[in-house]
Amino acid sequence: MKTKIIASALLLFGFGAWVWTACDKIPEDETRISSDLPEWQGKTVVLEDFTGVGCTNCPNAAEIAHGLQTLMGDKLIVVELHGQTETVTASLVGPQADGDPDLRNAAAAVYSTYWKVAGLPCGLINRQQAPGEVLSRARWRSTAIGVYGEAPVATIEATASLSGSTITVEAKGSFPQAYQSKGEIRVLTMILEDGFSVTQIVSGTATPGYIHNHVLRHVIDEAWGVKVLDANPAANSMFNYTGTVNVQSNWNKDNLSVAVLLCDNDTKEILNAAKVKLNQ
After folding, report:
1. Which of 53, 65, 91, 182 stands the most exposed, by the fewest C-beta atoms within 10 Å?
2. HSE on the CB side for 175, CA within 13 Å?
3. 108 SS3 class
């Protein structure tokens, strides 16, 4: 794998202080679909869904994410994170039936550990939450709508192409105004895959044929991305990024897409993002 930078990237009972259960009451306002959105200012919303195939309430969280996708269209990126940690156990996130694909991912485990995930489902919206402050699914909708109306501090656009077995991702963007960041600016590139059919725990019952989409399969470079600008970029600072990775044998290239996240490496906040399909 080669990267070039030009800077001018359940059942889980008894663990932790909180574990959401089937008794969670989701406010009606969080599940309904409404066109009552603020005017979009150009900032892409990123919902990272910490989930697992053994999590009995995760299908409900996926429904909320799907509703937000319907509401916001391509202005929302959803990422499923299946990250096994000491707290989020293999029985919760791992395969539940012989022959099912294993959706666990090492980078997802890094994020689960950093944000102190102690139960599933939960999530992040543009990584504006501090460690230990992940969002219950009841808070996804209102938080996402708030971010949808924010003006972005930076622009980003991306392309992804496949030649032979090599995926090449290119991104560029700029900071129109000076930005006071707490850390260097990084690009984090995620390979996502749709269409996994697994045996999912739904309402306490093992249910074959459940489909998982936008699953994190791989992070190009490092789990926290790669530097493209120093901290506190000046007005009109521009960045360019190129990353490459080889398609792995257990990826379905027809179901791949790429999410490119522009992040403040100190706070981990996603400043803006772009998602593209893989051009073949």
Report:
1. 182
2. 23
3. helix
